Amino acid sequence: MKRSIVKAAVAALALLIAAPAAVAQDPAPAPAAPPPAVDLPEAPVPYTTIRPQRRPQSKAASRPPAAAAAGSTAAAAATTAAPAPAGPAVAGAVPTLAGQPTNVAGARLSAGQALPPAELEAFVDGMVRDAMGREHIAGVTVSVVQNGQVVLKKGYGFADLDPRRPVDPDRTLFRIGSISKTFTWIALMKEVEAGRIRLTAPINLYLPEKVRVRDQGYQRDVQVQNLMDHSPGFEDRALGHLFEGDAGRVRPLELYLRQERPRRVAAPGVVSTYSNYGVGLAGQAVTYVSGKPFEQQVEDEIFTPLGMSRTTFREPYPAKRGLPAPMPAALAADVSDGYRWTPAGFERRGFEYVSQIAPAGAASSTAGDMARYMIALLNGGQLNGVAIYSPRTAQAFRTPLRPTPAGINGWAHGFMIYSLPGGYRGFGHGGDTIFFHSNMVTVPALNLGIFISTNTETGAQLAARFPDRLVRAFYAAPHTFPRPGSPELVRQAGAFTGYYLTSRRAYSGLEGFVTSLIGGGQVSVTDEGRLVTGAGEGVRAWVPDGPLSEGRFVAVDGDQRIAFVMRGGKATGYLPSFGGARMERAPFWRRPPVLAVLAVLTAMAALATLGGIFLRNRREFRENAIQARAALVQNIQAGLWLISMALLAMWATKAGDLSQIIYRWPGALLITASACALVAAALTLTTLVALPAIWRGGRRVDSWTHLRKAFFTVTVLVYATFSVVLALWGALSPWSG
């Protein structure tokens, strides 16, 4: 059934807009003294009443950077940044993670030392160009800020290959995916500041009636803050609607939220499972209470005050009633194309529309604008005398809403909390569309901000590892890898081994079937005492990080961590370092190998059934009326099972192009395969009912032999077992998508 192709293609869904980039993990150090407060208003002054202060600049500082193919601007002057202000946390917040290490023994630089611009540029050049060559990436844009200045701003490769258009960090717009969510959280917190929204109130208070979250059997309301730490309890659906390749299919946000309502599969506040739909609700709430379209609200309250003139949530579709105004033509002309690498070279792909759920990932920006944004984030929401949010909100964006195990990313009122090499704590977000992959991390203790974006499907790994590698190279002590294994882990392997399924998936229908098929991984223990998770290119090895009873593990070759949930000395699940889902131990029938074995047995039984038509001797053709009808039904079943598997194999051969899976989901092949399987499974009921009559038979000369009766019975049981498992997986619902 080409399962490996399906797994490789659809597994990339985890890297989409919904999936922030992973950053390697280190244990958090002992808290240090909080940074000094800056003189900001208790609440931001509306931007229309502010006159940005003009500061004298030297000619060198005021000169615009030269536009070249590389687009380099090293150590460019910008605003003076200050640490995040101290102040009382917002209601419901837990103590802030302000403590940061000031020095790391053995590191090249201490926390108080700035990055040397020339060394930084050489390091970034080497890392980016090496990745572009090995991983086939068409274009990359990067900006690094520190102490209120742009230390590096550079473009690599091309935004367009025909004709060739180099990446310009100040001009070329890249799709930044889920980094868009940080703007949504700022817009939401501004409504909290204004008293129009409360974090602990039900989100339904701030939504139109048709969009409100239904209880679906859960008594506890979904609160606003549940959206900010991704714990509303929604299943995660994306195929066929999260991205659109046809501008004509773009819908207004409110309509999208009504039509694509997910199931609630957990009580709110229990576990963080990344939810694009939840962010869409937050954006709709901002629109509902402010009375402004979301795109205009973000422009008025964030982009315009910060001077981010080349950042927008608008997309280049034709003007259409009911939709926000499209992206201005001047910006649309500078949006980078997205690319897919094929054996024949780079293949240009069409624009990915996300406006239907814009708050979750529709933004496009330049490295230059993102540099301004990071400076403002590091300066408590202030840039050039303009404050876009208050000191209390600034602290909230560094305050986790719920505790997480050491090394597991958490959520600071919507911003992801990263544990970085050297014990540093970062705040930011990753972002992925199908073809663009981005990452933004700010490190308050270093007054450092890092942004990177790539325009090719293969760029996800570079975007994910870039901030980690940069911090490690300059601010972390060297470490010897790989870490040694644990003999004790070998002895207690049974407590951890098994198949685990992610909580971030669809829970029913064909999407539930596919995401269950690729949304899990085997956990095993090697003879050398290393824990192994995942499969294929996603395999990672881990060693214990403390007593095994605590279930904490650290990567053999890095700083990433995972934490198992232990009950009675046995793991029931584990938290990946990403922090946006939980891997739960799956029952045996949820394991892909079990499904694969049943599929093989079903195919063998079907082939044997049809082959028997041509191979049976005259004695074996003797049968009564009931047996004749049962044989006909089973022959039809055999054909349907084989057709279903053949269609699924044909669908799998097309799954290498992820965009086609998403845009055309579920497609005629998959629907027909499911329909054939559904009819075959339904016919199993007929053969089960007929079994007693089959065995009673008639006179010996007019009945099947005992061998044929036994074969028929085994075949019925195989088909019935396969049908039940397929139904539990959601594969027998062609109407559901």
Describe the structure.
- With about 725 residues, the protein is an alpha+beta fold.
- It folds into three domains: about 5-50 and about 70-455 and about 465-475, DD-peptidase/beta-lactamase superfamily (Beta-lactamase, 3-Layer(aba) Sandwich); about 485-585; about 590-730, no CATH class.
- About 35% of the residues lie in helices and about 15% in strands.
- The protein is built from 20 helices and 23 strands.
- Strands 1, 2, 3, 4, 11, 12, 13, 14 and 15 form a nine-stranded antiparallel beta sheet that branches. Strands 16-17-18-19-20-21-22-23 form an eight-stranded antiparallel barrel.
- The chain is globular.
- The two termini are about 20 Å apart.
- Residues about 1-45, about 45-70 and about 75-100 have low confidence and may be disordered.
Helices and strands, with pairings:
Layout (H helix, E strand, L loop, with lengths): L2 H8 L48 H4 L10 E4 L40 H19 L3 E8 L2 E13 L2 E3 L7 E2 L4 H14 L30 H5 L24 H7 L16 H15 L3 H13 L22 H4 L5 E5 L2 E5 L8 H4 L2 E2 L1 H12 L3 E2 L2 E2 L3 H6 L13 E3 L2 E5 L5 E8 L4 E7 L4 E7 L5 H16 L11 H5 L6 E5 L6 H10 L1 E6 L5 E3 L6 E5 L7 E4 L5 E7 L2 E6 L7 E3 L6 H24 L9 H29 L4 H6 L3 H30 L9 H24 L8
Antiparallel strand pairs: 1-3, 2-3, 2-15, 3-4, 5-8, 6-7, 9-10, 11-12, 12-13, 13-14, 14-15, 16-17, 16-23, 17-18, 18-19, 19-20, 20-21, 21-22, 22-23
